[in-house]
């Protein structure tokens, strides 16, 4: 098994950036989900509520953070002042985030048709993953809950096979917004991995990822008039464990070391989870 793709999503819910290689640190992939859109009160906003976020490209630049949307003038966001802050909410987490300048927030609000703020997870921000799953004190940025999301090509192939069997089309891996994609022959093998090693770094698979309406949206346009993977996930990937309800695809992963990984790196299973995961309907390849 080898790494087939690497992605970061600098602005939560906006378009991703494919990478040939990346550093790994305690937060996961540097630059991943370091910015986020909120409402005026600091409540986070994603494609779930605002599909148009899928139309935003992000270009991290030296001394700036550039946002692009077709038909709009670019927004070059300067580094936020560290004392310009807002308490924001990501699910159940409260984070003190740095806030972009008024001009950038005004232009982004015009793009999205509602008042929003662009906030940053800077060096003063603090957030930790759920200790029940990831252990005490594991840092995380603006991701939904954990540092890294891993998916596999074998599992996507199996999901698309079920979609095809029901004449429901097919979907690409971008629907699931992974950070690390692993090329595998076997579907759902990741359910039985407790830990893997890539480039000498241990990655613990701490919790399966429950999926939502974002998987039904085109990741370039935000349209929901496209093939929908939810019915197939409901048929073959519905969790039977009430701690993580709903359809599952991919695993949340916590890194236990630092280093650099690249496309083509070998992936080794170093600790197994023989019991796998409980499903209402068992996955089939």
Q: What does the model show?
A:
The protein has 285 residues and is mainly beta. It has 4 helices and 18 strands. It has helices spanning 102-112, 131-134, 153-165, 230-236; strands spanning 2-8, 17-18, 21-24, 35-38, 44-45, 57-61, 64-68, 75-77, 85-90, 93-99, 117-120, 148-152, 180-183, 193-198, 201-210, 248-255, 259-262, 267-272. A hairpin with a 5-residue loop joins strand 4 and strand 5. The longest helix is centred in the middle third of the chain and has 13 residues, at 153-165. The mean pLDDT is 96.
Descriptors for this entry?
285 residues, mainly beta, eight-stranded mixed β-sheet, five-stranded antiparallel β-sheet, 4 helices, 18 strands, 32% strand
The shape, in one word, is globular
- Mean pLDDT value: 96
Please state how the strands of the largest beta sheet are arranged side by side: 2-1-13-12-16-15-14-18
Number of strands: 18
Beta content comes to 25-35%
Largest sheet: 8 strands, mixed
Q: What structural class results from the helix and strand content? A: mainly beta
Helix content: 10-25%
Strand and helix order: EEEEEEEEEEHEHEHEEEHEEE
Sequence stretches where pLDDT stays below 50 over 5 or more residues: none
What is the count of helical runs? 4
C-alpha Rg, in Å? Answer: 19 Å
| Ends apart, CA distance between termini | 17 Å
